[in-house]
Design goal:
By secondary structure, the chain is α/β, with parallel strands linked by helices. It has eleven helices and seven strands. Strands 3-2-1-4-6-5-7 form a seven-stranded mixed β-sheet, with helices on both faces. Helix 6 (150-167) packs parallel to helix 8 (229-244) and helix 8 runs antiparallel to helix 9 (247-258). The longest helix is centred in the first third of the chain and has 18 residues, at 4-21. It starts with a helix and ends in a 6-residue tail after the last helix.
């Protein structure tokens, strides 16, 4: 016998299924290390998304230690019904944040966008058009760095040169947070550590068609970016991990270095005065 409660549950499930089918675009925004004015950033993103479709959702995935960002986004969600929130109970990093967002995304197409100012939002349309015209499975943005600082361009060139040496890929800006992909392919990504940076390379390794589209860089993104030595070293380990396709090496090497004297005194020790007045990213 079907009770009234069971009928109501079935009705709610059907309504939810219909809502899921109506979502064209899911945007996943990981809030992990830094963020700019979230309300202004969301408005700039949503204005461009509405030019493409009214049927979109924005999933903020917030790391465990980002309590201020969580309060801001929670308040913002009361004003905008498109916002969904995933909040980790402890710091898990950007790779886990993207994985959680992918798992919960309902749209036919999934985009990742940074929680800070990086590219001109109007160029989201270019990536969407490339993706929906069946030109590729994954589309990634490449910032046009004509106004970027010399140091930023230099370190980016060196990084991508090493990347090409190890992987043979042609990408010129894998660090850009603006990407788009078809929903049916997101399950191929096994993200951990810093592998979120290498999504286009991982996609190619799975035989997917990836395109890199030039987009305009925001002025705020041209400030000098200096990373700690550990971040550079971690990226190198990730490159090696991708090259040899043995994820266990990533953790073995990281563990050995974490208990070594070199880890604490040479490789990763930088004077605080070196960082003063420089923007980190």
């Amino acid at each position: 016998m079907i009770t009234k409660e069971k009928m109501e549950l079935r009705s709610k499930d059907k309504i939810q299924d219909i809502r899921d089918e109506l979502i064209d675009i899911s945007v996943v925004i990981p809030v992990v290390e830094k963020y700019d004015y979230i309300d202004e950033l969301y408005i700039s993103y949503s204005q461009e998304l509405k030019k493409i479709t009214e049927r979109f959702e924005v999933i903020f995935v917030i790391d465990g230690h980002m309590d201020d960002a969580y309060r801001t986004i929670k308040n913002l969600s009361h004003k905008y019904s498109e916002i969904r929130i995933i909040k980790f109970l402890k710091p898990l990093g950007e790779s886990m944040a993207l994985s959680a967002g992918f798992e919960n995304a309902r749209g036919k197409y999934i985009f990742t966008m940074p929680s800070y100012v990086q590219v001109i939002p109007e160029d989201i349309q270019k990536l969407y058009d490339t993706l929906t015209n069946d030109e590729c499975d994954v589309v990634v943005a490449r910032r046009i760095r004509k106004d970027d600082s010399f140091f930023n361009r230099l370190q980016s060139s060196i990084f991508h040169m090493i990347l090409r040496l190890f992987t043979g890929t042609h990408f010129k800006d894998i660090s850009c947070g603006l990407r788009g992909m078809k929903k049916e392919i997101v399950n191929v990504f096994d993200l951990y550590g810093n592998l979120h940076l290498f999504i286009p390379i991982l996609a190619e390794h799975h035989g997917l068609n990836v395109k890199e589209i030039p987009v305009r860089q925001q002025k705020q993104d041209t400030r000098i970016r200096i990373h700690k030595m550990r971040e550079y070293f971690d990226r190198f380990i990730d490159i090696v991990t991708i090259y040899i396709q043995a994820p266990s090496i990533f953790w073995i090497v990281r563990f050995i270095l974490s208990i070594s004297w070199i880890n604490n005194h040479i490789l990763f020790d930088i004077s605080p005065s070196f960082h003063r007045g420089i923007c980190f990213k």
